[in-house]
Amino acid sequence: MKIFLSIFFVLVFSIQLKSQDYLNQKYDREKLILDRLTLGCLNLDPLDTLVRIGNIFNFHDDTLKVLGVDTFFKGETTLKFEYYTNCTQISNKEGNFTAFFNGGFLYDRYGNFEDLTMLKETVYGHRGHLGINRSLILPYVGRDSTYILLTPWNHVEDPDYEVLNPTSIAGVVFREENNGKLKVLDFIPEIIKGNFCFFGTMSAVRHANGRDWWIVAPQRLDNKVHTFLFTKDGFINKNTQETKYVTGDVSNNPEFSPDGQWYTRTHVEVLTQWHNKSTIQFYKFNRCSGIFEDQIEFEMDYEDTSNVVQVIFEKK
Are strands 252-256 and 262-272 parallel, antiparallel or unpaired? Predict the structure, then answer.
């Protein structure tokens, strides 16, 4: 089967910036991207003498608008966050920035935060799991102004790879109040168990009914993929599928195409000091059944400084 896609291969230094398409919803219309670790999100305008620590990416009218921020004002309140890497966030149905999670604190648009103490775990040396946040925020099905934060949890140390490996996915339900502040409603300690990836733990796409959500979470170093459905009644249809190809020790930037029919992820393997191998995988996804169908994998050899990190689909 031929795939007619326009694909951009994103080259980055040490941080990966990504966007999740929610099938014509507005939950990703306003994104805050802060980057203290690389030059990627510092001053976009070389003539701008004010040091910026991030950017607001605004897609409200389907046209990309970028606003460099050192402080970002909503009314008279300054929005500031403690930022790690690969943080997750969501906008409300109107497309306005709503919540930001950095792995330990859940922030509202004003910079107020809830310390999610239920997620606190032992940190092994310098390899804290909060430094690489692999979480996901979705609108709660059937509940207005309510959301669920899905996050890796119950980490165990993997000495071979020197990482903390998550063994379950937890959920934190919260609501956006009329004043824009957030209120935590519930904690679900174990939605599903598994051996999840250090990067790319999960991604989500709308069910074909346009209401519910499929969540996909690959097994690390395995050819199995967990899929489960999020509905107004909770998490159902939990399934583990054997796929054609094995997930590496990381699953870089797993994404769905805008129409939800294709799922993709990448992996970079270090072969020698000066030679890496990039692998790209495509999976045909059935939004009715949640089953992966056609599966395609190909490799691209690059030198050490140029690796394929992320695949981005054109709208069509």
Answer: antiparallel
**Amino acid, single-letter form, for residue 271:** L
Going from N- to C-terminal start, the domains of the chain cover: 7-313
176-21-11 Cα angle (round to 5):
115
Helix/strand/coil percentages in the chain, nearest 5: 0, 50, 50
Q: How far apart are CA 256 and CA 280, in angstroms?
A: 14
Q: Which two tokens stand for residue 145?
A: 């102004």
Instruction: In whole angstroms, give the CA distance from residue 58 to residue 41.
Output: 15
Q: What 8-state DSSP symbol labels residue 51?
A: P
Q: C-alpha distances in angstroms, 296 versus 101, 170, 279, 281, 293?
A: 33, 31, 11, 6, 10
Which has the closest alpha carbon to 311: 249, 255, 247? 255
- pTM for this predicted structure: 0.78
* Pairing between β-strand 262-272 and β-strand 88-91 as defined by DSSP bridges: unpaired
Residue 130, SS3? helix
Going from the first residue of the chain to its last (316 residues), give the mean pLDDT of each consecutive group of 10, the final group possibly shorter: 36 36 59 54 52 68 73 46 69 85 84 83 53 78 93 81 81 94 94 84 89 91 91 93 78 81 84 79 93 86 68 75
The rounded distance, in Å, linking the Cα atoms of 200 and 289 is 22
Q: Please state, in angstroms and rounded to a whole number, the distance separating the CA atoms of residues 101 and 281.
A: 28
Which residues 6+ apart lie within 8 Å of 159 measured at CB? none
* Long-range contacts at 278-285 (CB < 8 A, ≥ 24 apart): 278/302, 278/307, 278/308, 279/248, 280/308, 280/311, 281/245, 282/3, 283/243, 284/1, 285/205, 285/214, 285/216, 285/256, 285/260, 285/261
